[in-house]
Structures are given as C-alpha cells and as structure tokens.
Design brief:
heterodimer, A: alpha+beta, Immunoglobulin-like, 2 domains, nine-stranded mixed beta sheet, four-stranded antiparallel beta sheet, 13 strands, 33% helix, B: alpha+beta, 4 helices, elongated
Chain lengths: 251, 129
C-alpha cells in the first residue's frame, strides 16, 4: 500500500513539473508576442512620424518659396496637395490630414513676414495640423503645430574716419525657431545717400563667421549722410530668406 | 487511482491555460526587415536629405546612404514614384535584392525645396543569403 502511495505522489510531482514547464514555456512565448504588438504599434507610429516630418518639410519649403517672392497662397496649396497625397498612401484604413493656417497676430494666412528697419527681420509660419487615422483596430486623432521661424538680428556701430569716410561695424545673428543657426548666404549693404552698396575689397571689407550663427562685418564707406543705414540679407540653410535694416549708432 | 485522476486534471488545466493564452507568433524576419527599412528612411528624411537626393536625382548617393543605414546582411532595392505614381528612378538603386522573404516598405516623402515635390519611396528588403 505504501509503495503504491509513493508511486502516486511521484506521479503527481512529475505531472506538476510538466505543468510548470508547459506554463513557463507559454509565458516566454507570451512575452515574445508582446514584442509583436509593440512592432505593430511601431509601424503606426512610424507612419504618424513620417507624416509629421513630411508636413514640416512642406511648411519649410513653402516658407522658403514665399520669402523669396512667392505668393502667400503657396503654403495652403502645397499643404492641400500634401494632405491629398498622404491620404492616398495609408494602406491600413482611412487617413485624413487636415490643417488650418495661423491667423492670430502677427500671423496672417499662416505667414509672418516682417523685415523691419529696427534691426530685426522675421520670416515665419504657423500651421495647426490634425491627423485622423482609422481602421478596424485603430482610431487615432492627433493634433500638432508646426511653427517655423527664421530671425535675423542686426546691430551696427560706426565712427567717422575722415571727411565722409566712416568705419562701420555690423554684427548679425541668425536664429531658427529661436536658437542660433547658420546662414547659407549673407549679403551686407550700406546706403550712400543715393544707392545701396555692397561693400567690397575697396572698402576694406572684412567678414568673420563665428560658426555659431553670429557674423561680424566691418568696412569703410563713403557715406555723406550723418545717418548710416545698413541692411543685411540672408538665406538660412533651409533656403528661407530674411532681411533686416538698421540705423548705425555713432560711437 | 486518485493520484492518477489529479495528474490528469493538472495536465488538462495546464493545457487549457496554454491554449487560451497562446498568442499568434509571427515575430520573424519580415518584421525586423520592415522596422529596419522604415527606420532607415525616417533617419534619412529627418533633415530633409531624402527629398533633396531625390530632387537632385542622385541615385548613387541615395543608395550609398541606405547601405550605411541598413543592417549588415540586408539586400535592398529602391523604387521612387512621383505624386502621379510614375516611376522616376531610371537606374537601379540598391545592392541587388536577394533572399527568400522580401519585405516592402512604402514611405511618402516631401522635399524641403521651395518647389515642394512629393514622392513615394518603395524600399524592398531581404536578408541576403
């Protein structure tokens, strides 16, 4: 009887070990499956990220176009086309990318172009986006804002050298979305009472790029007027154009 | 007799639990390829380089950049379509697609240029060998 009881207990222990092995294997497989779910979510989040990135490129390209003389409608037209294009590419259901152009001051039709005479120039844009993705398993409604701004700050001082000749120093700072950024091209002008002149070697022109979005220029110009007007025109690395004028301060 | 009955109950319960919580297991090479391809394209597009290379029709540089961004041992082939879904690359971009399982990743791309072009990048990937 005791022998039978022991063999029964051994059978139970064996069965329990088998059950534990079965369950632990299942737990491992279940953990792997969680990774699958994460992977599926990744493809959705990749598409959302992809659309956000593309929208940003469209906004930057449109701002570059408008700042270089394109019409203000360019932004809306380009975004309409992009929304339509993206809507056709989503394969898992319905995708609607809608947008509204910023109309809160200083923006009008999503644009803010202010090339002032106070030493500050701004080319900016502000667009609200809503991305709606829906299919059998997912219903996503995301809102985000894209605000692209290129700012040029210019300061100038001058001193009289002799007769009408003035030694002029100019410092320019370029900012993208408020942080220092590099310019692709920078052109400086000064007003000689009749024309805007680009200082060259004959004006002892020197140019220094600090590599951090700050540029220093110096020249000697024949400027009869007491007021020395200086203007800087730049293209940033994204091809966005901005200009700013300032009246130089005599030192 | 009782022990045998209990053993059957335990095994049966464990089997039921296993079957009930058994998820579909398809985390395989296709998923890895798909994620790698999408990540490579996003990386290339993050600073606008992808659209710029397509604008410039610089297929060699595009192929080289993808080769760097994709994992070693992955073969790939890229086809680029314009907004009207016309193929625009006139030469092969890739390192010769070879492998048993081929995965395709599609990526809508906008160029950052002032003329704003839209493209669909179709990246096909396979584990070589």
């Amino acid at each position: 009887m005791n022998k039978r009881s022991r063999s029964g207990q051994a059978l139970l222990v064996g069965v329990l070990i088998i059950a534990l092995l079965l369950l632990s294997t299942e737990l491992y497989v279940y953990d792997l499956a969680k990774v699958i779910d994460e992977a599926n979510q990744n493809s959705l989040s990749d598409f959302i990220f992809n659309v956000g990135l593309g929208s940003k490129h469209v906004v930057i390209g449109s701002l570059a176009n408008i700042s270089q003389g394109g019409t203000n409608q360019t932004l809306g037209i380009n975004l309409e086309e992009w929304s339509s294009f993206v809507g056709r590419q989503y394969q898992f259901g319905k995708c609607i990318l809608s947008f509204s152009l910023g109309e809160t001051s200083p923006y009008a039709s999503g644009m803010w172009i202010s090339w002032g005479t106070n030493g500050t120039g701004v080319s900016g844009t502000y667009v609200n986006f809503t991305l709606n993705l829906s299919d059998r398993g997912v219903d996503v409604n995301l809102k985000h804002v894209i605000n692209i701004t290129t700012t040029l700050l210019i300061e100038s001082t001058h001193k009289q050298v002799q007769a009408n000749d003035k030694q002029v120093n100019v410092t320019c700072n370029v900012l993208n979305e408020g942080t220092p950024a590099l310019a692709k091209n920078l052109t400086l002008y000064y007003y000689n009472s009749s024309d805007w002149i680009v200082p060259g070697p004959q004006s002892n022109y020197t140019f220094m790029d600090y590599g951090n979005g700050t540029y220093f220029m110096s020249f000697v110009g024949d400027i009869p007027s007491e007021n020395v007007l200086v203007s800087a025109h730049i293209y940033d690395r994204r091809e966005i154009y901005v200009q700013a004028n300032v009246t130089s301060i005599e030192i | 007799m009782l022990e045998a009955f209990l053993a059957v109950i335990v095994i049966f319960s464990a089997s039921i639990v296993s079957i009930k919580f058994s998820p579909p297991t398809n985390f395989d090479d296709e998923k890895i390829l798909s994620i790698s391809g999408m990540q490579a394209l996003i990386e290339l597009d993050s600073n606008g380089a992808l659209g710029k290379l397509i604008d410039e029709r610089n297929w060699t540089a595009l192929g080289e950049d993808l080769k760097i961004l994709l994992p070693v041992g992955v073969s790939y082939n890229v086809t680029i379509y314009d907004h009207a879904m016309r193929q625009i690359n006139d030469s092969t971009i890739g390192n010769g697609l070879r492998g048993q399982k081929v995965v395709s990743v599609e990526y809508p791309c906008a160029s950052q240029s002032s003329e704003c072009h839209f493209y669909l990048v179709r990246l096909q990937l396979a584990f070589a060998g």
